[in-house]
Sequence to fold (485 residues):
Amino acid sequence: MVIFLNSRSEKLVPEDELSRQREYALQVKKLLELRYPGRTPLAHVHTFGCQQNVSDGEKIKGMLQGMGYDFCTAPADADLVIYNTCAIRENAEDKVFGSIGQLSHCKNARKDMILGVCGCMVQQKHVAEKIRKSYPYIDLVFGTHVLHRLPELLYRALTEKKRVFEAPDSDGAIAEGLPAVRDGKIKAWLPIMYGCNNFCTYCVVPYVRGRERSRASADIIAEAKALIADGYKEITLLGQNVNSYGKGLEEEINFAGLLRKLNVLDGDFVLRFMTSHPKDATPDLIDTMARCEKVCHHLHLPVQSGCDRVLREMNRHYDKKSYLALVDYARKKIPDLSLSSDIIVGFPGETEEEFDETLELVKQVGYHFLYTFIFSPRPGTKAAQMDDPVSPQEKSRWFRQLLDVQEKIGQAIYDGLVGKTFRVLAEGQGRSGDGWLTGRTGQNVIVEFEGSEALIGGFVNVRVTKALRWAVIGEIADSRTSNEN
Ligand code: SAH
Ligand code: SF4
Ligand code: F3S
Fold:
């Protein structure tokens, strides 16, 4: 028993370290009062990449608020800029370098500005080095494993005359209880685990995020309850592979069990989750989704490829047959289930015949929507070493073929929604103009409908009247909102 408790507590950032950081936060606050007398210092925090990173960005803002910062939308207005970066593909990194490049103008105009870069990119030694050499105006660089030490690192950046670089390699730990400034008031991200152990051969995440580790269910439930009490109506549980939630915890729990615990919390809210790795998706998970009325009927189940040889080379640990069997089971249990997926086009050595197998699988499954990527070699990963004879032009051609196929499938699915009524969370103003609201069905289909702003933040029944490419148009089917139920 004691051994288990020890192994668990090793994964938590110790309380004395967190209190040391709170002490630093107070010191920074005092420094800022002297540095900017009579005004509130401003920070611009921009997050690139996935929802996990967005959630980290919300914690960065939470810590900064505790240090006395307010937030601004333009980097040029800021006393502190932090770019929270993503390394998943080369174009993601290029975007970040482009943005960092632009910061030099801001810094020229305002020498006392502090510029920081953090997140997945800087966990890679070659990127940290590039910033050290080629971007001398960046003052502060910190990796994913030291996010909770931002107060200390910022204190050093403000007081020392040299640049601060802190991006140690680590298996990773969990810092509970960090404050957060959330981006919205209706939908919230709730990380249930961090890191990844899967080492898909193309992927940089296990290298920059450390080993997979789960939060205790009590911490997750406490956070969910606080969100519900604050009026949040949609909670999305986050993890690189939520289906392996619970491994390494001293409590006996798996992801389906966690969903069941969250589903019984009081309040009118819905639950979503991502990402679900097909190798660990169980019938128990599907049955739980079917039974738990708060869990949305949408499953993001990234297949990556429809060819068994490519899947083996990717180290995905499932094959086409087992994937399709899972899809069949899920569709039987949850007839209105929507499925979405990630696909990588042009994995090293993939042939056109093998790519055609992916096209076939996409047609066979009939996804509501797809996230498609051309393979991007990531330094340090196995796939980056593999022979990659297919030309970029050829890969682009396959990519466009995939988009064409999916467009037709998506359009047919969306057309089939016309006349149906869905319970939609009204999230905000729509894109279609004044008086229009936007929301999403449980299946994650965007719905635009006319309605009063007072409906925002509540559930509304909407009947679909027309299908567009990116969304459906609807009209309110009755005026009941969840608040009146
Ligand atoms: N943990 C999630 C995926 C996170 S990354 C999962 O396993 O499903 C999101 C998506 O980016 C992946 O599903 C994959 O399709 C894509 N991706 C990751 N690395 C990539 C690379 N090197 N090149 C192209 N696409 C990549
Ligand atoms: Fe990357 Fe695979 Fe982990 Fe997803 S499961 S984050 S694709 S290594
Ligand atoms: Fe990018 Fe890091 Fe997420 S690499 S996709 S921000 S975990």
Q: What stands out?
A: Confidence is low (pLDDT under 50) at residues 1-6, 480-485. Residues 49-50, 52-53, 86-88, 120, 204-205, 208-209 surround FE3-S4 cluster (ligand 3) (CB under 6 Å). The CA atoms of residues 197 and 212 lie 5 Å apart.
